[in-house]
Amino acid sequence: MTTARPALDPELRSLLADMPLMSGLSPEILAQLRQYPSPPVETLLAGRNAALREQTVPAEDGTPIPLAVFTPAHHDPTTPAPCVYWMHGGGMVMGDRFSQIDIPLDWLDEFGAVVVSVDYRLAPEATGTALVDDCYQGLLWIVRHAAELGVDPARIVVAGASAGGGLAAGVALLARDLAGPTIAAQVLICPMLDHRNGTVSSHQNAGVPGVWTREMNEFGWRSVLGGLTGDEVPAYVSPALAEDLAGLPATYIDTGSAEVFRDEDTDYASRIWAAGGQAELHVWSGGFHGFDALYPQARISATARRTRTDWLARLLRPA
Asked: I want to staple 152 with a disulfide (CB 3.0 to 4.6 A). Which of 36, 80, 83, 275 is the partner?
């Protein structure tokens, strides 16, 4: 199998040159990485007319799951707004409800959307369906409290990046299969969809330092699956396993040409089309994993973000 890798966008390559990169993860390295918190949320809210409140919801086993609820400061709850339900990235093993939160906060600015971000439990402490179940409980809470939040239940978007994109896909599958809440759209940003880790793009990102490599991906999946193998792995955890992708909400998927998830992401879009569904797919030439979250100032990142927002605008704004 080829190990040649598509070239990086020149501007991204220059920016990445100053970033310390790794080729793999271990429990020891993970413990070190978890010591670095997300940027202070106060910094992200500076200059935004938004209010933050904290909420907890019970997981299926009663564990309290934190939610961060961001509301436009002058939001009138009698005029229901769209809601973006955000699932953060971090390979299933790190991150918190404020990770990459600047992405959905752009949609608060753009659409007056209420943004809810879930602090699902992390692997390896939590395994199997625990992570996606935590996320699904958050969705149920939003729907039950839609009037209080001033949210239009017909305009709820599930969204996430990397691991969060995979969890958002799992939540959409759960909502479909359990006849749960109607989801208007799913926005899957470089989503982590397939535990099998065997695609060409996965092998192209093996054996070299990177933002997220094949070896790091293997660590993340081992952590979340625990001892599950083969047919024991639920599709809600590894959405690429879902046999039927019919009946899903309108879907936006984007990924980079030089990243580990490129092929599983493009395959997921293709299978949605094959099932008669609507999906918009963007493969950003020269993009590595999470490029627009790490370097939003790059030209390719600004274009990716704007394209994503324009797609949402077509779905969320009243005709």
From this structure: 80
